[in-house]
Amino acid sequence: MAKDKTPENAEPVGKRSSDPFGIESAKWRINPWAELATTMGVAVVVEEPEFTDVIENVTVPAGRNVKLACSVKNLGSYKVAWMHFEQSAILTVHNHVITRNPRISVTHDKHDKHKTWFLHISNVQEEDKGRYMCQINTVTAKTQFGYLHVVGHGILQNNELPNASKMSSVFVVIVGDD
């Protein structure tokens, strides 16, 4: 049986599994620092990135701004991307806005121990509703979702009433806890 020809500076990615022939296999990622660290007598442990919190589901009135948060630890050289799932649209990758929608922006708190990536949507519109996916570009991509629900399509904004001369009557509905 042939000996495993795994490079010395490689590390396993994911869990090992056995194939039908009983030969153990794993995916490997080259760690360029492993060779240097091995020469210096230092053990290198590379932790995979992971999400530290869920993406909150948010309800926002149309016309307002919203900020969705995706917190990650051990990001290393991996990148975080935001996508609008229903539209199959890549919105941002790392610090770059990919979409041509000028209402979309991305920021992150690089001083935070668990880096938090914020997707900003200004002047939210009805078509913005849906699932937003935060993804880490690991070998097997890690993803999580949050839902943006948009309310108030056709509802008055900023408590402003329309010009009364153009309407025969105005009805005001107050929603309470009763």
From TrEMBL:
The keyword Cytoplasm does not apply. GO terms for cellular component: neuron projection. InterPro entries: Ig-like_dom, Ig-like_dom_sf, Ig-like_fold, Ig_I-set, Ig_sub, Ig_sub2, Neural/epithelial_adhesion. SUPFAM superfamilies: Immunoglobulin. Keywords: Disulfide bond, Immunoglobulin domain, Repeat, Signal. Residues 49-144 form the Ig-like domain. The keyword Disulfide bond applies. PROSITE patterns: IG_LIKE. This is Ig-like domain-containing protein. It comes from Anopheles culicifacies. Gene3D superfamilies: Immunoglobulins (2.60.40.10).
